[in-house]
Please model this.
Amino acid sequence: MNFQLKISKLTEKIKDNFLDFFFPIKMTLGKINYLNSCGLKYKFRYYYNLKEVLSKEYPQGLIGMETHRWIYRYLKKEVSIDITNIRDLILEKVYKKFKDLTDADKEFHKNKIDTMLNNFYKWYTSSDKKVYLVNYDVSTKLNGVTFVAKCDCILETPDGYEIIDFVTSKNNFSEEMLPYNFDTNYMYFVLKTYFDKKKKGEKRFVVKKFFLQYANLVKFNVNTFQQKETIKTLVNIKKTLREKKFEIQKGPLCGWCGFYDVCPGWKIEREGLPEKGIKPVAPDTTLFRIARETQGMMGLSYSKMSMFIQCPRRYKLCYLDKAGVKPQGFFSIGSTVHNTLEMFYQIELKKGQTEPPIEKLYELYDENWISAGYVSEQEEQEYYKNGKEWLTNYYNKYVKGKYLKAYSVEEYFELPIGQGKHVMIGFYDRIQKNPDGSFEILDYKTDPKVRTQEEVDKDLQLTIYYWSLKNRGIEAKKLSLIFIRFNEMVSSTRSQKDIEYIDNYVKEVADSMVMKGEELERIRKEYQQKGEPLPQEIVDQIFPATINKYCGGCDYIIGCPMEMKIKTEYSDKLLFKVSDSGQVLDKDVQEDVDVSDEQELEENKTTSSNTSSTTKQ
Model:
């Protein structure tokens, strides 16, 4: 048996080497983002070489591309920096392609280009800069795959190199948030591997993002756990491509996909289901895209709406300013558990089995482990141990003798809501079809507290799940929250009365979200026209900071007007405690983990990871 296993492994290795030699894989960040967003989209684009048919294109993409092109030419000393002339040349191309732009649109794009070019010029001329390379591709190999990273600009400094990535989008990450950005982690990994091999560590390098719209130059400080997750993603790419596992991933961005019209995952929305009386609701594009592109409409998720209700300031920073979010240990363990159970409930039982063995659950747990968000190896190990214990208890109570393959898992939905004025999106954790033919919606929670029956009966998210499933011709007789930490299930039911209530409630909230956003934009333009900065106190009046039980897990607690009150007067009311440095403290884990050494935590944020470590064992 051992001999046969060795032969099998040797055969696989020979086959792998053969494929690597004759059919090498080369991946860019663009290809990786395609694959991560949807396997089928990647297959259409790069496997079948189909061209995306976009129902609508936007000036922002062309502006970004042209701005980069002129910056490259200037850095190569091919042209002088004449901001007015370059801006007009870019606008000429934009106007030629997008003929329906309004005067307001044209003014907006003109100001945006001016701002970006001026910010670039001020940065470049602020000190002597020795340009080493421009628009240069760096490549390295991992697991037989060549990964390529495009460097906009590489500057040579006395002690190494400075890699600058110019960002023309409306993203604007702080130094605290940038370590959790996948694109930057990918660039860092490629560059580090390249420098370690080619330069033998003789010269240092730093990666910086220059957010041109905001004159914000941010240094990337590597986070060991986030880098480990990035490498894990890259390692899995080869397996996906070799096995050709191009799975559909329905989600919020599908409406902007150029293959929407042929995607089998959207067939019912496009064409309806006459035999069940279901009419087509999105023949040309998704409801979510329509909501996002229609003035006065909101494209909502439950978490987005909840964040606005809980704290308007946090909502503004997250969704309007796009300041970025960072992983937290309690989020990562939640995602790990969700992903594990998602795969577990898709297992087909073998003949004679009543349930999959618990070892399979453990295997999936290891396979889906997410390392991002932990502050130390010790904390990660403690979460890992706790999570495995939670799943063991869950298996013994809810799986043994009770296993049923799920009707569906992590299925995406879009729901017209707010009297048809807005759109709610979401994912069901699990839909179960029971032996008696009834349906049940199950949602996993890893919160550090079990909700009461009254709280579950009033849970708005469950009402949304119930309504959206009913729109598909399926009425859930039971809706259940499973509190994984405590191995408890609390069930409830819903009726038409609950639908009517949430329809009106969401309209009220979403209309307020629209109004506040429009008010901020109006006032911001007024101050821009006056050439004055928008006072922060005005912003705080429109989107005030509001204390709630989730403040302990907020990414923006440092600098919050309510920061001191949250940490003192309201500390006992928080779901998660928070340290002076803003570190979230999960009492179920931190009782066994010492997180008092702030210097050690800070060092951990900036220490490079060992790139050979790829997965949690």
